[in-house]
Amino acid sequence: MKKTTAKNERRSISSFIFTKRSKYKSLLLILLSCVSICSMAQYKSNIAKIDRSTWPYKIDSASEFDYASQMEMLVFSWELNKALKIKNIDSLKQYLRIKSVNQNSIYEYSRQIKGMILQNFKQLDIHPKNYHIKLSEINSWNDILTNANNLETKLPTNLLAWYNNSSRFYSKYVGEQLRLAGLFPSITSEILKLDNTESTGVKFQDKEFLLSFDDGPTAKGGNTDKLIEILKQYNKNAIFFVLGKNFETRSKLNGNENLKNLYRGFKIGSHGNIHKAHPRYQAWKHSIAYTDSLINRNINRTVKYFRPPYGQRNSKIIEYLKSKNQSVMLWNIDSQDWNSKINSKEVADRIISLMLVWRKGILLFHDIHSKSKYALPIVWKQLEQSSINWK
Ligand SMILES: [Zn+2]
Description:
- The protein is of the alpha/beta class and 391 residues long.
- The chain contains 14 helices and 8 strands.
- It is globular.
- The model is unreliable at 1-9 and 11-44 (pLDDT under 50).
- Residues 6, 9, 214-215, 271, 275, 309 line the site of zinc ion.
């Protein structure tokens, strides 16, 4: 049950768009479900993965982190620029594998991203070494593209494998992002904000990151407990967005002291009572209020942040949260740890690459899945001396 809900986190977006209009026609439903399943399978296998061992240098000093960050940002920007050249609406639909594309949202997303990447370039403090590639000055998005365009010709042979890998990775990653943007706001997600009170992590300081875990807690002694042990071992904090139903089950089985001890020292937020897209769930208000009262009553903690299942929310939900002095917390770095097509090492590599590109933010994981407890120690060890501020 728990596994199914988390796996549906992204899948539902694919299936939702196909099933929305097919409510009254059973034949069409069967046909579209088939299309939907095919689309899900394709989407699942199409997630961006990278083997970071092709990057030949370390990233565990601030300067080396910045050098790697510069190179990743160049490749990302180039791939984004390539994708944004697709202007024909049918080609865009085909590229994003969706039936209806909101081009305004894609424009708004790309406008924001270009600003962020440009800002990130200004943060770089690279102490040149003899193997560092020198760039021409960057003051605009076009300057970034000029440098990205010339990059391939400047690459030493030991960076060719990285470059090819990285290009493939960001090509797919840009596809993931633009797909979400193209669906927004008919399907909301972390890709754009609906309201200024929402946080995604992009307003953090440079090199500030927050770990977040959804869908728990698991049964006593399960993955949530094991993960928390590892976080303590590495002296890292995190926010857990608990699902009211799971929280209540564990409370009934193991008592509230067990839950108090489990989450002691960690931040806690609400993921609602059940894992349903709240804009389409009649009892959404009860789901939020009930989970808040469970957390408050059972472990004496006040909820400040709500993370909507699948990232889906609407203005009513946002206004209701405001009335309770709460806000939506989304994410900007999706680990894809629920996805069976990616293993723990690949999750670690994906996270590191995205941390190098975004340089700040909220990382999304699921404590009901086991990958993060193997992936995160890899990330922490590689970035140990790189002055990352884990919030
Ligand atoms: Zn979830």
